[in-house]
Amino acid sequence: MNLEPMQKAAVLIEALPYIQRFNRKIVVVKYGGSAMVDEELKKKVIQDVVLLKLVGFKPIIVHGGGKEISRWVGKVGMEPHFINGLRVTDEPTMEIAEMVLNKVNKSLVQLVNELGIKAVGISGKDGMMLKCHKKLSGGQDIGYVGEIDSVDPEIIHDLLEKDFLPIICPIGYDEYFQSYNINADDAACAIARAVQAEKLAFLTDVEGVYKDFEDKDSLISEMEVDEAQAFVDSGSLGGGMLPKLQNCIDAIKNGVSRVHILDGRIPHCLLLEIFTDKGIGTAIYNSKEDERYYHG
Question: What share of the chain is helix, strand, coil (3-state, %, to 5)?
Answer without folding.
Answer: 40, 25, 30
